[in-house]
Amino acid sequence: MKITFLGGGNMANALIGGLVNKGFAAGDIAVVELNADNRSKLEAAYGVRTFAGAEAAAWDCDVIVLAVKPQSMKEAIAPIGPHLKDQLVVSIAAGLNLASLSRWLGGHRRLVRTMPNTPALIGAGVTGLYALPEVDAAGRAAAQRVLEAVGSAVWFADESQMDAVTAVSGSGPAYVFLFIEALQQAGKDLGFDDEQARRLAIETVLGAAQLAAQSPDPASVLRERVTSKGGTTAAALAVMETAGVKAGIIAGVKAAEARGVELGQQLGAD
Ligand SMILES: NC(=O)C1=CN([C@@H]2O[C@H](COP(=O)(O)OP(=O)(O)OC[C@H]3O[C@@H](n4cnc5c(N)ncnc54)[C@H](OP(=O)(O)O)[C@@H]3O)[C@@H](O)[C@H]2O)C=CC1
Ligand SMILES: O=C(O)[C@@H]1CCC=N1
């Protein structure tokens, strides 16, 4: 399967890195990327072919992954239309709905909307996928194969759910990194050096995530097991509750979903 990425930025890097690390042939991956620095980095890091512009040879592939910012998408995909035959087009863009993409691609309907996340770089991503009804089983399998090379894949039957996927797992790593930053900072405030604070914070998050993944019990029960009555965790959680940590996370995720819907409406109006 030959794959061409349109856009070679952060997320394309994570996906390409994950694919190559998984043993996917670098020679079967091409990237159309405007930025010369990004092109050099991609070639050096993964041995993939790159194109500075959207020339015909770039679209001689089975799958095209649209990986530019939603705001750049309409302009960026304009040159692809004339080269489209039966390639499967897989978008990873937040907000943009498939009706807009199909219109901008001259009515192409072999379209899949996906939302991966950056842990794809180490094969630990999770991706939500939605396909237009015109995409056959082989097309769905091809999209799944690309995204499953870098983690797990979850299909959704309704495109409107993709904005929630974006808010929860697409943006989700940023919330976890923010938590790690805060835990590390607290450790440093309490006297650890950088390395001590980093190890304690990251290994705590890793261990807790693995425990949550492997345990039959919900996260709330696992949290209660850490929280001894009148102990240290209870003292921490009381302060966090007053500070609105949990409510803030829930409100933030809902704001992300709303922003996805808004982006889709604004950009789709074009
Ligand atoms: N970052 C993330 O965690 C995730 C991002 N996404 C989605 O992935 C997409 C890309 O995001 P991200 O990787 O963060 O963005 P980046 O800005 O890092 O990457 C986009 C790249 O595309 C290049 N580009 C812009 N216009 C064109 C064009 N016409 N032809 C070729 N290349 C072009 C940009 O170059 P230049 O910088 O010079 O403009 C840039 O290098 C977005 O749609 C986003 O919604 C989805 C899941 C997670
Ligand atoms: O912030 C964004 O818009 C993109 C989509 C999900 C993660 N990053």
UniProtKB/TrEMBL annotation:
The lineage of its organism: Bacteria, Pseudomonadati, Pseudomonadota, Betaproteobacteria, Rhodocyclales. The gene is proC. Its main location: cytoplasm. One of its GO terms (molecular function) is pyrroline-5-carboxylate reductase activity. One of its GO terms (biological process) is L-proline biosynthetic process. The keyword NADP applies. HAMAP family: P5C_reductase (MF_01925). Keywords: Amino-acid biosynthesis, Cytoplasm, NADP, Oxidoreductase, Proline biosynthesis. This is Pyrroline-5-carboxylate reductase. Residues 159-263 form the Pyrroline-5-carboxylate reductase dimerisation domain.
